[in-house]
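Work Package 3 (structural annotation) set out to generate three-dimensional models for the target panel prioritized at the project kickoff. During this period the team completed the workflow that converts sequence records into discrete structure tokens, so that structures can be stored uniformly alongside our sequence database. As a representative example, we reproduce one entry of 213 residues exactly as it appears in the project archive.
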Amino acid sequence: MRNGRLLRRLAVAALAPCAAACDTGTEPVLGGEYLGMLDSPFAAEGAALIEITHPDIREVSAPGRILVAQGTTERTVRLMLLNPPRNQNGGPIAFVVRMAPGARPPEAEVLAVAAPNNLARGFVGAYAVRFTRLGPDEGRSPPLPAPPAGPPPPVSWARLVAPFFPGGKRLEPEEEIRVDRAGNGNQVLDLGDVRGYTHAYPGVTPPQTTWSR
């Protein structure tokens, strides 16, 4: 009887290292699509300028929002995200990024934020971006409706957004004044002015685009 108990103890002791070595845990599923959500101290925002960095970014889209995206290096993509300008209450700032198989979500830096009233937020250090992996049917919002034509814009869309991206040409002084007056009127060209300008001249906004590498 005593020998039987001893044999069982020895068998358990022999199996324990194998069990520890063989139990590798469940690895998280990586790659595919992630929802990037601006973590804001407020309930809603009007616009944000964000840089995401990773060598395996494949595509960025923002259903239901105005998206301007530019690959600034082989690893970095700068995003300008505007909630619909006619929605004066703003809303969450979110986008979808598709990563290569096996890749983790990118790092993100918030460069500028504008409130729903298009005034610039003065403390972007309080903001971050959270990423959540999406399933096949998640993260899909209806596309923006086509904006009404409205009056012809005095400053084109390409000229309007260029100063916010590396290498972009600055607006002429009279153009900056015109855009600022249509935006938040603080005498500084900022992200809120872009959103306000698209409200004053809805026809300036191009069809929603998707950036891909």
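The chain is about 20% helix and 25% strand.
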